[in-house]
Amino acid sequence: MIDRLKVIKVEAIAELGGISDLTELERWRIHYMGKKGQLTQVLRQLGDLPPEDRRIIGALANEIKRQLEDELAGFKSRIARTTVESKLEKEWIDVTLPGYPVSPGRLHPTTQALREVCSIFTSMGFQWVEGPEVEWEYYNFEALNIFKGHPAYDMWDTLWVDFYNEKGEMPMLLRTHTSPVQIRIMEKTRPPVRVIMPGKVYRYEATDATHESMFYQVEGLAVDKDITFADLKGTLYEFARRLFGEERRVRFRCDYFPFVEPGVEVSIDCLACGGVGCRLCSNTGWIEILGAGMVHPDVLRRVDYDPEVYSGFAFGMGVERISMLRYGIDDIRLFYSNDLRFLNQF
Ligand code: PHE
To answer: Is 260 among the residues known to form the active site?
Structure first.
């Protein structure tokens, strides 16, 4: 029996040397010290021995059991330690490394131009308001004297929204200009009105260097008693000079928009050549920056403003165009192609 115990001990310790994980270790424990384990079986037989042998062999068996238990405990803690160590090894980070720089970003050139334009007008007492981009046909057209069949109705290539009213008409669209906001404001308020209305507009366009299907406009409207064309001119002169420089010359020429009468196009002398004529101004010396005019009496009547009492002026301009002129950008598509090489310059 003594020999048997010694063999068990040697075998057990040798086997332990080849074990590398906890499942194997548990199998090893059961094999030697489990209920039916090698060592347990020897201990069970002790009762059958004469008392003298029982003492000696019992002591030896218990001694071996303790040794194996010690080995087991030692092994367990070694495995635990190496697991932690290898984990630490794998997940090691150098906390002293400098962090990734956070790019602060910047405002889009359109946003910059839009804010600049609007702040010039807010400083003159205009109030910043916005209207919906998906608009009723009525506000985009009829309310502004643009009727079906009228050539001006086709002037804008419209993106219709797939939405029908009871009459089976398609009465909603992506607004083609910011002018419908004029109507919305006048319907809700009584004169005096002085508002600046920036926002996105949409057109069904074959895009090219000067046409995008989405772009920004800034619309302006002033209605009060005794507003005259002189107020329109004075306001837009002041605006053009604040935005493009004190020395700018401004030109007003007749133009047609159904919702104003008279209507004008406003140009500034060319930024590039100072009016001599160059590529930027197509050799005319002038660059058109906006459309404007005196609010049409029918438009006023439609919102219940008495044109005998009130008069007003309105204007609208393309924001990207302003930015293009100032920075010499020659393709409007650059604004929305999300190319950082372009955007980072502003
Ligand atoms: N809404 C016109 C356009 O998009 C611009 C405009 C606004 C003209 C206000 C006159 C008065 O072309």
So the answer is: yes
